[in-house]
Structure prediction request, 1027 residues.
Amino acid sequence: MLFRRKKERLKRLMPEKEQKDPGRGVFTRRALLLMAAQTAALGTLGRRLYDLQISNGDHFAKLADRNRTSKRLLAPPRGLIVDRFGVVVAANRTNWRALLLPEETTDVQNTIERFSAIVPLDERDRSRLGREIRHKRKFVPVMLREFLSWDEMARIELNAPALPGVLIDVGTTRSYPFGPLLAHSVGYVAPSNEQDVAKSALLALPGMRIGRAGIEQSQDTLLRGQAGSVEMEVNAVGRVMAELDRQEGTPGDEVALTIDVGLQQTIQNRIGDMAASAVVMDCRNGEVLAMCSTPSFDPSLFDSGVSRAQWAEWTNDQRTPLIDKTVAGVYPPGSTFKPAVAMAALSSGAITPTDRFFCPGHFDMGGARFHCWAKHGHGSVDLHLALKYSCDVYFYEVAHRIGMDPIAGTSHALGLGTELGIELPQQRPGLIPTPEWRQKHKHHWNGGDTVVSGIGQGFVQVTPLQLATYASRIATGRAVGPHLVRALNGDIGGQIDPQHWPELPMDPKYFQAIREGMFAVVNEPHGTAPKARLTIPGVEMAGKTGSAQVRRVSRAMRESGHFNSASLPWEYRPHALFICFAPYDAPRYAVSLVIEHGNAGADVAAPLARDIMTDTLLRDPVNHRTQPGQTVADAG
Amino acid sequence: MDSRKPLRRFRKRLLRAEPSFRILSKLWRVSWLYVLLICGLAGVGYVALYSAGGGSAKPFAGPQAMRFGFGLVLMVTVAMLPPKALVRVAVPLYVVSLALLIVVLRAGHVGKGAERWVMLAGTQVQPSEYAKVALALMLATWFSRVSYARMGNPLWLIPPAVMVLVPVGLVLKEPNLGTAVIIGGIGAAVFFAAGMRLWQIALLAVPVPMLAKIAYEHLHDYQKARITTFLHPESDPLGAGYNIIQSKIALGSGGMWGQGYLHGTQGQLNFLPEKQTDFIFTTIAEEWGYVGGAMVIVLLLVLILGGMMMAIRSRNRFGRLLALGISVNFFLYCLVNLSMVMGAIPVGGVPLPLVSYGGSAMLNVMLGFGLLMSVWVHRNSRFGEEPDEQS
Prediction:
């Protein structure tokens, strides 16, 4: 049927005469076959077009939009860091850079050569340039040189006609006006690396810096601010065609520190180039007024890249300039640990302040002999005298009686051997050893370990910041916590109120007994630190000396008779320590001072600590705005 | 039918009165509807090139319109030529086309990694475009002398096979895979329609795949890469797969009604490669949607089937085969180009006839349409009678 109709159609297509032509018949049939094939082929393409445009259209439409738009982040300015009086200690310095836009110059290499004749480029610049030019698109500027001086800029501007494609651009870099003075506590920034970028895309922006130490690191997210963004329509090669949307970012927060730069500078000048650390704390509220760790380094070098030679110099220096000694330097506290042992003993009820022990100059336990620093002993001593003379035997005895655990518990409560939560990532906890801790390290704890811990030797390790906190807590009886951030964007939180800090669980009369002992150290005849007595009339200071051996004194050395630690090589000499607070009757400031290998705390550390305390007290009326209705005596 | 009779009578009387009206009479017989459709397709091309030029007649649409105008004149002029004249020029034109293909291999200009262009009289000419038309004419001429009966003897098929294979080889050497396939396709279609016996076709089915394999081994690396990336375009999104992916994205983003004229983001933002030449259809489909794209396909199909119908209606073997060759040429252009932009076959430099920007393709397509129209105009001519018709 169908076939016949087809035949009829063929007849109509061909006049009768041609129907006899077999060639034409074949042609017509085959041409019709071809036409059917052609129709089918184009039909299939139409069907495929339908699939692409309608069935999967949404998918491809999304891809097209992603093609079309490009979102770029705008770098927010980094927040400033200021001291407690608003002096800027970390600023954003404008950084004049020379950029080269490769598409605007006919001969990139030639332009670079001419540029380097005006402003010299070193090998590092050149290899970086070559890399950037190869990898970036022609309309993305590459950086020729940054940190241009006015002089160099003037020369570039003058030669502008000979330098096609060279343009001057302003960016920012971090600058630290006080340089090494605050390097440890403020920290420094450096360009972000791949791991940082993986965490936050914002850090991929050119010119973005990330805090690598100190406050810059701990407050990085606040300082960094929120990135703005700009959405742009781009063409296939990435050139911006139009701006679709722009959102300005928010600049980073301004962080105000508790540090007083003036005081810090004064203390720094007093310390000089000794390897030492000093912490000055407001003992009522835990504000750290000064944190010196010497020697120091220039923090701005980390932004532009530290040279190999400079790095070698830092790392080879015995005095460890890169380490923040105030929070990361751990030292045996020596005799400064004795008030903590005393407090532990009093609180545990093992002794009363009036209990007396006899000091013959040594303490014998299980066949071992522990010497007092005074060869011939102190005779009969109670707590007051034991602190005043810093009698070792008294504390050997006490520690031996109560054991290590109460000492560790009390020390932690007083701020020793524990993380204090200051805003410095580099802080270390130190250590108050316990039998349990020793066990963990597969060693047996013996009685002798407890005895030497009683005078802050052996495994005991604390940081200068902990010592200052410890002095503050003894002075106030409150668990004040040290901190460095005073305000964010000018907003002071509740931390500065002394009531913010909880009272310590120890009996106030024991604190009083210990404070009296520390008062005697400085102010009574035969105390260990008469040199630390303040010269300011009506103001007295309480303190405690410490000399921490870094090497066991052998019997041979001791018996040779003329043992003098000052004759040892520098790195074997004991550390000199001093902790103090003042005014004695209404404590306001606490100071801790550690002089590495300074020999004797009483001779070296105590007078220096007195000077630091004097500086601090003298700055007080000028610079401190005491809040109305609050008197110094509030601190109790 | 009856209404047309007075007109025919009028025309016959006119011709008898004055022979110089012969041209007029021929013009009368030109299928102006078909010409209108051609103009319509060229119009689509103008609109698309205007968009590809970023909403401006420069640099694509304007020159292309001028070429089309010239092409239109060429087409009508060629349409006036009788089959006798066409047969006479077939061999010289074919020889010239081979010569040009050789010239392009010797001194061609490299475009996209292949030598396709040659400078002629100050303009760039792409001889492979012209070779297709010349071949169609040559084959029609050959087969007009070889009747259906004669084709039973395979010896008659050897010379035309050589006529096809020589330009195929030369074009492959350029290398231009797409055009080589089209030339081969034209040859195959003409052989088939001329009455090649089925047993002959079956015999060829054995060696041809072998030849294909050899040909693949002679492909350039970039052509092989196209074949591999065609299978997995996402494996190399910025390299050889880029064209296909971006083209698909553009098509998909068009949807049913398109993004609007001059608002196709893929095309306007230059994500589309060669959007004014090979990928012009993508621009159309992105901006006009599936509706626009489908209408273009329908228009192309109407032109193809119209050409085939003209072939069937021709009363002489030469005209039939010539019209068929031209129509198949046009069809293969469309097929290869559309398949290419839709990612159905590997990419090769084949334009969309009359729409894509480019002078050689435009003029040769118009030359082809001129030949087609000549067949139509002279469809009742008794040229080249096969001997067996008289028996």
Observations:
- Chain A has two domains: 71-257, 261-295+323-625.
